[in-house]
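User: Fold this one for me? It's Sodium:proton antiporter NhaD.
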Amino acid sequence: MKVSHLILAILFWGLATPAFASEAGLDLTQSGVGYAALIIFFLAYCLVMGEEYLQLRKSKPVLLAAGIIWLMIGFAYQQQGQIEVAKQALEHNLLEYSELLLFLLVAMTYISAMEERRLFDSLQAWMVSKGFNFRTLFWLTGFLSFVISPIADNLTTALLMCAVVMKVGGDNLKFINIACINIVVAANAGGAFSPFGDITTLMVWQAGLVSFIEFSDLLIPSLVNYIIPAVIMSFFVPKTKPNCANEKVELKRGAKRIVALFIFTIATAVSFHALVHFPPVIGMMMGLGYLQFFGFYLRKTLPRSLEKKKAVAMANKDEAALKRLGSVVPFDVFKRVSHAEWDTLLFFYGVVMCVGGLSLLGYLGMVSDVMYNQWDPIWANVMVGILSAIVDNIPVMFAVLTMQPELSLGNWLLVTLTAGVGGSMLSIGSAAGVALMGAAHGKYTFFGHLKWMPVIALGYAASIACHLWLNGHLF
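Assistant: Here's what I get for Sodium:proton antiporter NhaD.
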């Protein structure tokens, strides 16, 4: 039997299965459509988890799964005469995604612009040139990961610090593996107390469940999550110095001003949300306008800038500087947009639509009833973090937000914390871990990370205990 025939057979078997109405639409949890949707989502996510070995981009299976799931839902609702309910649910999920897409697109464009202006190369060269020993580099890369990720997001930060570790580590596989683990833990912990640090925190902020300032309540618990494993692992890092050559990196024109514009863009997004209660994405898109105008200014003033630098280089008889000036390319905002992580953005679309479809089928309501009505919400949120390590925090957090359980501010902060740092327990549990397995292929591995899972789990438990102690008044 052809695959297409098999899918159609499952579809029509599901349509023939009785369903009964509920407040949200049709309850299809006991139907063939429901079972088929679960199987399709499960198979798609198995392919996502095997991305490293299959060399199949993670967006492909979830895009296909989302289309099939919503096609089945459409037929089921059309047969029951409730197609408008399905259309409204579909449009709601598309709106949720479009807001996050545009927000992330602007943030990624700014990060790409900073990278093109060689800001990250400059930071990397500075660390290498200082002649730090392995243990100092272990702490420095971890600390910088924790500090930078709240602004630049955990994935970008982890890749930047991994490049430093790979450069100074050379053939020292033990150092590279343990330093990469430390970077993943630090980047995820740093991203947990900022709306800009991770997609999950951004989703919680955009949903209006936690304000921008209230995320700061997670700073100390996040720091505990990073420090405890780092202290234990540091005893296994040697104090010997690496052998590596110094490299001088010259920042391109406008690099520092782009950083200032990014900070101003973040302030604009926060202002839109705080002052007029508009979605932060409006402020972010306005911030993209700042970057476009600055790019226009850089292009228009480039000839005059090159003439000045050329005159200085000729006066100093600096042949290398003249050669660099000859290869200067004008700044192009739209080229920076094209360099965004489109695989991640499309993967996020697939996840949002798949989880939205499962919600309409009734599964998330069923899970929500068990976790948040029959369990203590604190234990439910702890389990969310454990699931994030196995599945990935994006679909888990989106599922929680779709359930919309009645939670106190303390519990919303707790689930934000656990979803953000829980993925650190396994290398496949976060975007940072998956990316580093590719960047340090064969040097940072799943099993190399797994060996340190008990230590990371200790930091996970300690961060939860710290949050319950410090922020108990919020529950």
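One thing worth pointing out: Confidence is low (pLDDT under 50) at residues 1-23.
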